[in-house]
Design brief:
Blueprint lengths: L28 E4 L5 E5 L5 E2 L1 H4 L4 E3 L2 E2 L11 H13 L5 H8 L6 H4 E5 L2 H15 L9 E3 L9 H5 L1 H9 L6 E6 L8 H10 L1 E7 L5 H7 L6 H13 L4 E8 L7 H13 L5 E5 L4 H14 L4 H7 L8 H17 L28
Parallel strand pairs: 2-6, 4-7, 7-8, 8-9, 9-10, 10-11
Antiparallel strand pairs: 1-2, 3-4, 5-6
This protein binds iron/sulfur cluster.
The site of iron/sulfur cluster (SF4) has 10 residues, from loops.
Length: 363
Amino acid sequence: MNSKRAARGDQLPLSLSDDPPNRLAALPVLDERLRGTKFVQLTPRSVLNSPEQTGVDFWSLNPYVGCEFGCTYCYARYAHRYTVERAHDAGKLTDGEFRDFRGEHGWEAFERRIFVKERVLDALEADLRRYFRANAGSDDPTPIVIGTATDPYQPAERRFRITRRVLERLSDCDGLNVGIITKSPLIARDVDVLQRVQARSDLEVHISLISVDAALIRRVEARSPTPATRLRALEKLATAGVRAGLIVAPVLPGITDDVPHLDALFRAARDAGAKFVHAGPLRLYPAVRDRFLPMLAEGFPDLVARYRRAYDGRSGAPPAYARALARRVKRLQARLGFPVNDGMVDRYRPRRVPVQGSLDLKL
Ligand code: SF4
C-alpha cells in the first residue's frame, strides 16, 4: 500500500510517555450468552502495538482478546493465555476463575471468554501520538493492521462496536496506511466509515476465507460465517468502492491446496470484486496443535502421520512445500487476472524460519 499523504504528527495533541504497558482494570462481565460465553471488560492503556513490540514490520491493533469463531488452526490462543495469566498474577482473577478462563484443555476459553477493550479511544489517542512520532517525515508510513490476532468483526463487535470506534478515529487522520483482516460479513455494516478512511488514507480490507466448501469450513472453523456470506460482504465492499481482496490463511496441506480447490476459491473472490488475493500455508504453532490435531485425526485421519512428519520440530511448513505452493498461487493469480505477488501469504503474520522437511502438495 502506498501512502496518499505523509503521516502528520501535527494533527494530534503532543506529548505522552512511550510504550505504556497494558494495565488490567477490574474484570467486570459485560454480557453473557445463554450457552455460557462471557464478555469481560479489559481497560488497556495501550492498544496499538509497535513493530518493536511485536517483531513484525507493521503496527497492529486487536480490539478483542479471544474469538468466538473458534478456528481450529488459530494461532492467537497464546495471546489469550497471556492475558489470562497476567490477570491472575495481578489478582484480577481468583484461582477458580483462572481455571475457568483457561478452559479444560487450555484452549476452550479462547472461544468462550472474550476480553473487550473498552475505552479504546483513550488508549488510541496516546498510541497515535507515538505512531505519528515514529513516522514523522515519512512518505510511506508503516501500516496499521487491525485484526492480526483476533477477528475485529467477531460477534462481540455487533454489540460493543470497538472496531467501529477505532475506524472512526482513524478516519480523522490523513495519510495512514490501514489494513483490516476479518472473516465476518459484519464489516459491511461499516462501509460508510471505511469509505471515509479510504478518502484520506490507503486502505486494504482482507476478507479471510480458506475454502468455498461450506461443509469443510464448518469442520475446520467451529462458528465462523459461511463462505457465501463472506463473499457477499466482499462484494458489498467492492461495490462501494472499498479496496478489498481475499486472504487465504492458512492453506491446509493435503486438504485445500489442490488446484481445483484454490481455483474455485480465487474465482469466487474475483467474481465478488476482489482486487487481490494472498495465500499461504498453515503454521502449526504449539498452541495450535492441541486444537487442530484432534480435528485432523477425526476428519482427515490419513493425513495425521504426514502432518506429524512435516511439522515435526517446526511451526512453519517445510520450505520446499511453501515454495511449491507459492508457485501454484502465482500461476492462479496470473490466470485469473490478479496482481501476481511472490506467493507470499503471510502478509500480516509473524515470520519464522522453518527448517527442511517434506510435504507434498495435493494434486
Ligand atoms: S477468526 Fe481469526 S482470530 Fe477468530 S478464531 Fe478464526 S483465526 Fe482465530
